[in-house]
Amino acid sequence: MILINGAELAEEILQEIRQEVEILVANGKRRPHLAAVLVGNNPASLSYVTNKVKSCETAGFRSSLIKRDENCTEQELISLIEELNNDPEIDGFIVQLPLPRHIDADNILLKIDPKKDVDGFHPLNFGRMAQGLPAFLPATPSGILQMLERYKIETDGKHCVVIGRSNIVGNPMSILMARKAYPGNCTVTIVHSRTSNLKDLVKQADIIIAAIGIPKFVTSDMVKEGAIVIDVGINRVADASTKSGFRLVGDVDFEHVAPKASFITPVPKGVGPMTVCALMINTLKSAKSEIY
Ligand code: GUN
User: Fold this and answer.
1) The domain made up of 27-116 is a member of CATH 3.40.30.10
2) In the predicted model, what is the mean pLDDT of the chain?
């Protein structure tokens, strides 16, 4: 079993980005600049956004963290997005999800200029991604592709089972794993909460990508010997023995699944840091006008 060290790999890629940034700056270009919008005080979201800002520092980017109160109106948020769309000093920005319930997240994502949509959540980027056109790829699926590539994991002709169908992970991941490319060329099955024979299908997988948001959902009896297991889950479960009162648990029962897997990602230090890394890659691409 090979443990995929997402934290180490992300750090390596961030250093490569930094080297490229320093060359750009030495040649008189503006430092890439990422802005992150955080609405409300969801502790997990705050932690994710803080990691994104830290990674900007490592990558040599400028960053701006823009916080808005939980009671911020949809219109106020739209005005902020318009400002960011029109700010020539900003290469890309993200609106951290989830948003408070009184705000229509789909409507908000539509207002982001696709040219600055470094999360790849705008339908234009999603559609371009689906058709194999140049696009900002959504950060988590893109980080997973980077992992598979850097660990030289063969995907051609494999059966990939994606667990979960969210617009952020499961849905785009399934499209990317099926496309004619490396990593890709998989036969893809998506399973979800309404799949009747979920266990049987997951058991057939050469590659399992778990993004269902349920702690330890994938148990060892669902995993074929030698499978590649990618765990996207970042679930907070109560743990009185830790300082924070919680610990992070993936969607995979790591302890029992790991001995059967050929490759597996841990939680934490697996997919999470790669998501942030993919966001940095998109921001650099935006600064270099590589997509649009
Ligand atoms: N919430 C969970 N994952 C993400 C992500 O990749 N980007 C944003 N903006 N919000 C998220």
Assistant:
1) no
2) 98
